[in-house]
Amino acid sequence: MAEHVARRCCLGWDFSTQQVKVVAVDAELNVFYEDSAHFDRDLLEFGTQGGVHVHEEGLTVTSPVLMWVRALDIILERMKASGFDFSQVLALSGAGQQHGSVYWKAGASQVLRSLSPDLPLHKQLQACFSISDSPVWMDSSTTAQCRQLEAAVGGAQALSCLTGSRAYERFTGNQIAKIYQQNPEAYSHTERISLVSSFAASLFLGSYSPIDCSDGSGMNLLQIKDKVWSRVCLAACAPHLEEKLGSPVPSCSVVGAISSYYVQRYGFPPGCQVVAFTGDNPASLAGMRLEEGDIAVSLGTSDTLFLWLQEPMPALEGHIFCNPVGSQHYMALLCFKNGSLMREKIRDESASCSWSEFSEALRSTEMGNGGNLGFYFDVMEITPEIIGRHRFSAENHKVPAFPRDVEIRALIEGQFMAKRIHAEGLGYQVMPKTKILATGGASHNRDILQVLADVFGAPVYVIDTANSACVGSAYRAFHGLRGPPSSIRQA
Ligand SMILES: O=C(CO)[C@@H](O)[C@H](O)CF
Q: Where are the transmembrane segments (predicted)?
């Protein structure tokens, strides 16, 4: 068994869709330990696929909350068995899949406060949840609740200006509204509602952790400018909601010291600080060390853009969240569903299924593609909501096809121009110091990255973000240790 050299460190956790993961980061910001518990592989008794249960109507998607608890037990026991020196942990923070929600049953706080170090968590928390299957971000069953919420505040744009996004089915306020409407008894027996992030923090605190402003921005409930709950939105979703949520806190807040359960059972130091957990995407922004003016572009199955903003312009597309690092700044998230699957389709059709031919086509065509423009959406796009392939000649005439090389450049230039246009629509501006951080499968193709650099007029750097949410959480733990003014110590 590998001996771990004892060193003072912070832990970063990620309670994501498919697993719980942890990294240990030392004071030089080196990752020296990592572990994970994969739900489908290590927790077969819960019967998930991709960490979730898709219900038979195909819209409702949930995950068993006790599976998340059990996964934490497994990792901590494995760390202990491997000889990990918990006494060196100065602080910990973490991330959770955004928008998911956990419903603590009346009396659960007493159980959390009096955990026996002789038992694993899952054996003690079995009766602590009024809803055993938590709704998660893949759920799309709350369209009616979305329309009700938008109507209550004066429309989609009004809701976006208030909370940073128009109503989205996965956003927590709409999920809470559905539970209140369809399961009022469970709602009335709920004393606390957490996000996945604040639920995970509560496990370490041994009491209810507050929701941080950044992950709270993914609920359609938080006024992103004033960083307080919108009473109109709360009232539109369910009664007595404010008392069930508690007050939001700045993301870099120290929310308390670790529960004595972990001191006695695993050897954590009593002074180990818990820094507010946040959403996986805000934590990734921290992990990628994004700064003002930078853009992170994740080129995967879907393409995701992370922006750091000072003056946001909430719109009907994309999401504005409170920034997890700069408490007076913001971050934006833009998701483009037609990402790598679209690139692979055009590669197969126009480059004989070959990336080297695809790259050759990009190298043999000029920036600007002679004025030819193309937009390709073989599946219904999120940003904006449109489907189909749309090509325009230099004379601005709609055309049914392009020559192979022109088609390939039109796809890539069109994808990146759309990203820049929607980013600027949210208030983003390319600055002289702007860096573009590229990650994901397509970031291995230099010719694709050259088009990205040309469209944004900024240098492109490739980064590995495999552990970005975990590593960002460990960075945030170090950040929180710096103390006031943003530390909120749990009473
Ligand atoms: O819904 C999302 C962001 O709005 C997803 O990226 C989830 O955070 C994934 F867990």
A: none
Which residues have a Cβ under 8 Å from the Cβ of 270 and sit 6 or more positions away?
257, 258, 260, 263
In the predicted structure, residue 490 carries a pLDDT above the cut 70: no
Pocket of ligand 1 contains residue 99 by CB under 6 Å: yes
Q: Which helix (H) or strand (E) holds 178?
A: helix 172-182
Best of 166, 195, 304, 335 for a ligand 1 pocket test (most atoms within 8 Å of beta carbon): 335
pLDDT at 488 over 60: no
Which pTM value belongs to this model?
Answer: 0.92
> Which of 252, 277, 290 shows the shortest CA–CA distance to 479?
252
HSE of 483, CA atoms in CB hemisphere, 13 A: 0
- d(CA 124, CA 300) in angstroms, rounded, equals 40
Domain residue limits, the chain: 9-276, 289-465
Q: What are phi and psi of 92, to 5 degrees?
A: -140, 150
CATH of domain 9-276: 3.30.420.40
| Cα-to-centroid distance, 98 and ligand 1 (Å) | 5
**What ipTM score was computed for the predicted complex, to two decimals?**
0.98
> 17: Cβ below 6 Å to ligand 1?
yes
What phi-psi label fits residue 440: left (phi over 0), alpha (psi between -120 and 50 degrees) or beta? left
Ligand 1 centroid to residue 6 C-alpha, Å: 35
pLDDT digits (tens, 9 = 90+) for 390-427: 999 999 999 999 999 999 999 999 999 999 999 999 99
* Spatial distance between the Cα atoms of 150 and 228, rounded to a whole number of angstroms: 18
Largest CA distance in the chain: 75
Decide: 280 in ligand 1 pocket, CB within 6 A: yes
Q: Is the CB of 281 under 6 A from ligand 1?
A: yes
Query: Is 289-465 the same fold as 9-276?
Result: yes
Q: What is the pLDDT of residue 464?
A: 84
**Superfamily for the 289-465 domain:** ATPase, nucleotide binding domain (3.30.420.40)
For the CA of 137, the nearest atom of ligand 1: 1
**Residue 439 tokens, joined:** 């990650």
Question: Cα dihedral sign for 204, 205, 207, 210?
Answer: negative
